[in-house]
Batch of 2 targets.
Target 1
Amino acid sequence: MKEHRYRIHTTWTGNLGTGTSGYRAYRRDHEISAPLKSPIFGSSDPAFRGDPSRYNPEELLLAALSSCHMLTMLHLCADAGIVVTSYSDQPEGTMRENPDWSGEFVSVTLRPRITIVDMSRAEETLTLNHRARELCFIARSVNFPIEHEPVVEAGPASTSPAP
């Protein structure tokens, strides 16, 4: 079995001078970085005193699920000879906050919109979407249901040259 390791660096940048001397005494700002990559500016959800202009961990979880599914789906379509010319998603998640301040996601819905050249392969594309759901590394790592509402639509062949 092959293993892959991932490392990032997370740095809290929200010390206003007195550290965490009180709940309102510090900002939730932080930076996530890795070599050769632009930093991601994070905070907590505004409901927890976070900066709404920065990504929060909940949004990053949705982004990880959505992008993992997309990359798996594009791989499967390429292998099957289905030409995808556009793909977008608008995932939505529900997190439950418990009385003891704990919380967990209880559901996520991915809404991939997949544009393919040959609409006679739409049903096969939906089947591959289901297979991508089973294979996605991130989806397989969470303990809440992930629903899918895929839409497959026709589009022209891409006019952009392949890199």
Note: The first helix runs from residue 57 to 80.
Target 2
Amino acid sequence: MADKAAKKQRGRPFPKGVSGNPHGCARGSRHKASLLAERLMEGDAEEVVRAVVTAAKNGDMTAARIIIERLLPPKKDRPVFFALPGIASAGDAAKAMGAVLAAVAAGNVTPSEAGEVSKIVDAYVEVLQVAEFEQRLKALEERANATYATF
């Protein structure tokens, strides 16, 4: 019966925001696995690289891929060039999206690239709408203040 009352606490033994190790890990300390891998490769790194290069020269496509990925990492994005009309209002966004669609249809831009450009156009239109709303609100406040000033 007494064992049930003295159960081990589960969950968070410390209050929120208070750590059991207030000083934490020392600055600049490294993970044990990283240190072990570094020690294992310490004297053999040059040999490993030479072995991978030799394997690639002998036709090992996996070794060749490793070397190419290190020398020429895959590009994540590329600049796209096509005529995009200016966007001064939310109504101009339709023309801009038409230009994006035309660029995809012409093969100048991939659909995924067009999707990214569309997101940028949408974000810009949102900013324009917020700015327009702010101007309208300011004008209404000024008009309301002028009305109350006459009373």
Note: The CA atoms of residues 43 and 58 lie 24 Å apart.
